[in-house]
Amino acid sequence: MTTPPVTPGRLDGKRVIVTGGARGIGGEIASRFAVEGARVSILDRLVDSGSRHAEEIGGTFHEVDLLDPLATEAVTQAAVDALGGVDVLVNSAGILRFTPLLDLTVQDWNETFSINTRAMLTTMQVSVRAMISAGTGGKIINLASMAAKKGGAGEGAYPPSKAAVVALTRMAALEWGCHGITANSLCPGYILTEMGAATRTQADIDTWSAYSPLGRLGETSDVAAVALFLASPDSDYLTGQAINVTGGMVMH
User: Fold this and answer.
1) Which domain holds residue 25?
2) Active site residues
3) Of the residues 12, 27, 76, 92, which has the fewest C-beta atoms closer than 10 A?
4) Does pTM surpass 0.90?
């Protein structure tokens, strides 16, 4: 009997770091990348679910508090060292606090920007230094949001922080493209994640679904599929973009 050839995955042998990879969109991306042959390291504050998910996909887990810039730098470097380098960085971790602007505190603002934006700069700095040192290029994928382009009332500091992610990603594309590094952001719309399950009702789902020409909300797999494209060689000439994964709720 002839053994059929093994078809390598689209990310075969790639070394990947995913922040916020314990669950939700980040967790789905970590799973999809592992299936495609990547060696995945998850960075998250959720120790139990993060460790369990890393074990399930054959990856590694590093606990990190993204509010702490020194810890973020140290843990990211530890992940790079453990992988022996990094080819793809996915920044998926983020927080959303519903607060009207008149009630928004400085602490709310600072914490949202610290996790949603500043932590991305730190993980990029560590990872890109390793990419440049290796001389083999790399991929950066930052999770922004539909809110970066079309925020909702009462979302507080979240839309500004995600708009900053888009701008930061474009700066990364401009400055690091000469090293063969691409940087793109993803702007998901309403995505059905387990994190939001406790607060949404069927009426919410029906209302939000009506905003999409496709008549449905997104699944985490919808976002992971686009992230896989950005991590693969198929996107080598694509950089500095903020790609909508919104089912047509935003078309620019």
Assistant:
1) 15-193+220-237
2) 158
3) 12
4) yes
